[in-house]
Amino acid sequence: MSEKKKQPPAAAALNAARQRLSTGWPMPLFLQGAFEFMQAALFSAFLVVIPWFAVWFSGGFADRGIESVLKMGGQIWLLIHGVPLNLLQVGDGIDPSHGSAVLNFIPLGLTLIPFFLCWRAGRRIARASYTDQLWQGIIGALGVYLLCGLFTGFLVNNEEASVSLLAATLIPLLPAGAGVITGARREAGSWVRLIGFDAAAWIAKTSQHSRWAGSYVWAALCGGALAYLLTFALASGLLAINLAVHWVDVSNVYQQLRPGPIGSAVLTLGQLGVMPNLALWTLAWITGGGFTLGVGSTLSTLQTTVGPLPAVPVLAALPAGDLSYAWAFMLLPVFAGFMAGWYFLRVGENHFDDWVSTRVGSRWLSLGLSTVALGLFVGIISGLLSVVGSWLAGGSLGIGRFTEVGPDVLLTAVLLAAQVALGTAIGYLVSPLLEHDPVLDR
């Protein structure tokens, strides 16, 4: 067979250039990350600004121009990313800064919008890069988001509210960074493909005692997270039931306000945006820690003191009437702890009990000590998670006495930790009676 005739270098280069023009050049990873996050920033901004424009076109902001409406939309965009707003309330008419307050209440439901957009971007970045190149796309993405926050903070300041440029630049990176990392991890399937670190290989090099201790700690951490998430799920279900029971009261508030079709839609979207906050308030309520709705208003299963409230439809579903049996709801976190104890038994990683039993001759004493330690460990993990959730769910509305809104962070964490610890101990001791060995049952 005759060999193919080699092309001259110039012709080969020309053909390669033509092929490249037809297929295109691959986009650099940092540029792709920047492009993905630019889309996320713009789309989340559109979702915030469009409702404000709808209200403006319907005459809701008749005394405002389009520039003022755009600035308000930019301020809301920063707020859903966790950036606090400094409200400049007019006091005596001489000093416009007199009576200034801080608005740092984060509508967590709206924060999920940029989070999931960045989560999607993280998956796309991970799909387009190798393990050792992923950082390029993430750096480019976060760099663009940093600039978006900086420019937004620079443009939205007016005589009504202002933001710190440093806060507007850095704080939006938190939900965006969490979204891109979790999205990239979801696409990669493991941390090994994501960052090139093989945790299993590293653990295999450690001693057996270290592996046992690590397995125990990891199982307890998972149990604490399970107890908190289950408590949150129970609180969310209780909130949904309570809203359904008081739906007539909620509808009456809508009818009294008469906001119109567009106003009703925007008001409903705003209330949906704070539903995760309300679920965390319900979690604080069932633990007994309670939450505040302004200075002097406290609601919990143990005590309820409510002052004047704004005409917000969802607030018509607040617990009222005879609450003498409300303490029974405090058993819900105990049930969540029970399930965590059952989970820990099924995992079978109670190496601390094995260690104690080798040093304490009496089995009932070693089992009691290890069970108490397990309950405390799982309860503390749930309490620490509660601190984060309660802190995110509260804040200040910056209006009148509503400078304190949200759960009692410390009391809720302490009570939840105690309830989960009790439930975990009971669950770990009782759950063997609920397990069945298929071989023995035959």
From TrEMBL:
Organism: Paeniglutamicibacter terrestris
Pfam (any one): DUF6350
Record flagged with keyword Membrane: yes
Transmembrane regions listed in the UniProt entry: 37-57, 101-122, 134-156, 162-184, 216-241, 278-302, 323-344, 364-388, 409-430
Transmembrane helix found in the keyword field: yes
Keywords on record: Membrane, Transmembrane, Transmembrane helix
Protein name: Uncharacterized protein
Source superkingdom: Bacteria
